Amino acid sequence: MLPKGKLVIIGGAVDLGSSLSYNENISHPHYIKFFERGILKRMITESSKGENSVVEVITTASKIPEIVGAEYIKSFNQLQVSNVNVLDIRSRDAASSPEVKERIENADVVMFSGGDQLRLSAIFGGTELLKILKERYQNESFIIAGTSAGAAAASTNMIYRGNSSEALIKGEVQITGGLGFIDDVIIDTHFVQRGRMGRLFYAVASNPGMLGIGLGEDAGLLIKGNTMEAIGSGLTILVDGRYINETSIYDVEIGSPVSIDNLRVHVMSIFDKYDLHRHQLFINQAIRVEEDVYLKAKDKD
Predict the structure, then answer these.
(1) In terms of CB atoms within 10 Å, which of 4, 28, 90, 228 comes out highest?
(2) pLDDT value at residue 295
(3) Are 67 and 31 in contact (CB under 8 A)?
């Protein structure tokens, strides 16, 4: 049965939660830029309660949750959404507290921030909180969103480590279980900017039944049922391994380079849609109105 809820995955902009530079001035951070591209606005539009939605931002993945949480509150407030709260859950015990469960049960939108996706799977995996999220997503008009690490952890299988420059070396890319909101895909973020094409190729070659999703910064996907729609101005790459003719991944030794023949790659831009059931891309023309602001010209499906 297809979920009644909606999933939003976002590639992330500069992410204070994972790789803070000492040269960056964090006294006036403006790193959550994607609301300007319409992603957060679209998320609120898709919520059944619109601007009256109760939003819970989970900053567990971040090393600097206070700064990240404050930025999300500011960003949502600029969209006239005032009921925005931050859940900084640092342990499995905290994830099981009655207060946390009550807040998740009363939220209309739950958003996972960026940082380290392994923190999300290790803290939330197998908890009552994750069970509640999955049940609400399956049965209600409920939105789950994640950016950067929060997007990478959204799928059942999750990339949690991998050197981009050596990603086609056997053993370099490591995959574990994610939060499990969506099956049969594997998601990578900061995709173009951090040169992660190779590690997504490797992840798909190791399990060709999964669709690889590479989200660039300022790129997002809105997933409703079997349909994924590109909702950000950035680049999204889809890697389809179902037509692989041959790969050396199962023959070569650990540390050896891997070869792959006949991967299929799709490129999505804003307003394009992809049918997860039919494995088909629908390209929709966008008109640029001003910098990073687009209107849909035509919907072919």
Answers:
(1) 228
(2) 77
(3) no
Q: What distance in Å separates the CA atoms of residue 195 and residue 207, rounded to the nearest whole number? A: 21
- Percent helix, percent strand, percent coil in the chain, to nearest 5: 25, 25, 45
Q: What is the pLDDT of residue 28?
A: 40
Say whether pLDDT at 13 is over 90. Answer: no
- The per-residue pLDDT for range 136-168, each reduced to its tens digit, is 999 999 999 999 999 999 999 999 887 666 668
The structure tokens 């999964």 sit at 210
Q: Are 296 and 283 contacting, i.e. CB atoms less than 8 angstroms apart?
A: no
CB 172 within 8 Å of CB 140? no
Count the residues in the chain.
301
Token pair 């399956």 is found at: 138
How far is the C-alpha of 20 from the C-alpha of 114, rounded, in Å? 12
Mean pLDDT for all residues in the chain: 87
Per the structure block, which two tokens stand in for 301?
């499906």
